[in-house]
Write a structure and sequence with these properties.
CATH architecture: Alpha-Beta Barrel
Number of domains: 1
Shape: globular
CATH superfamily: Aconitase, domain 4
Distance between the termini: 39 Å
Radius of gyration: 15 Å
Number of strands: 7
Order of helices and strands: EHHHEHEHEHEEEHH
Number of helices: 8
Strand order of the largest sheet: 1-2-3-4
CATH class: Alpha Beta
Length: 162
C-alpha cells in the first residue's frame, strides 16, 4: 500500500488529460494516461490498495467519467481529500470509487505513515491517529461494494426477479 499525495485543485485534466477523451474509451486505454501530466510515476507504479491524499477541490473541471473510472480500475482503495468537486464526487460513486473528505487526516499524513479506512464506521487511520468522517449512507456503501452504480443496479434487478 502506498499513499500518493497531491495538493489543491487537482482537476480532471490532471487526472486524465482531456486530449485523450475521444481516443481512449476502455479501461486498458485509460490506465497508462492517469495523472501523466501531474505525476509521471503514477500510472506505472500505482498498485491495488493504494490511496490518494489531496487538498481542496479534488476533481474540479469537466464531468468526464475517465478519471474516476481509471482510478477505480487501477485499484485505488480511496481518495482522501480536504474537499471534492461535486461532479467528480458523483462520477466516482457511480464508478464505485470511495471518496472521503477529511481535511484533518490529509493535514496529519506524513510520508511513510500507514493508512487504513473503515467506511462502514466512518474512520480513517493515519499512522497512530484515528479520524472520523460522516458515515456513508447504506445505499452509497452498497454501490461502492458492488463496484459501481451499474453493478449495483444489475444486482438489485436480479434480486427483484428472484
Amino acid at each position: 500500500m502506498r499513499v500518493w499525495k497531491y495538493g489543491d485543485d487537482i482537476n480532471t485534466d490532471m487526472l486524465f488529460p482531456g486530449k485523450y477523451t475521444y481516443t481512449c474509451s476502455t479501461v486498458e486505454e485509460i490506465k497508462p494516461h492517469l495523472l501523466e501530466d501531474l505525476d509521471t510515476e503514477f500510472a506505472s507504479n500505482v498498485q491495488k490498495g493504494d490511496f490518494i491524499f489531496a487538498g481542496k477541490n479534488f476533481g474540479c473541471g469537466s464531468s468526464r467519467e475517465q478519471p474516476a473510472l481509471g482510478l477505480k480500475a487501477v485499484g485505488i482503495r480511496a481518495v482522501v481529500a480536504e474537499s471534492f468537486s461535486r461532479i467528480f464526487f458523483r462520477a466516482s460513486i457511480n464508478q464505485g470509487l470511495l471518496l472521503i473528505e477529511s481535511p484533518e487526516a490529509v493535514r496529519s499524513y506524513s510520508a511513510g505513515d500507514e493508512v487504513d479506512v473503515d467506511p462502514v464506521e466512518g474512520k480513517i487511520y493515519v499512522g497512530d491517529k484515528t479520524f472520523s468522517f460522516p458515515k456513508l449512507p447504506p445505499e452509497m456503501l452498497e454501490i461502492i461494494e458492488a463496484g459501481g452504480l451499474l453493478a449495483y443496479t444489475k444486482k438489485k434487478l436480479e434480486t427483484r426477479k428472484n
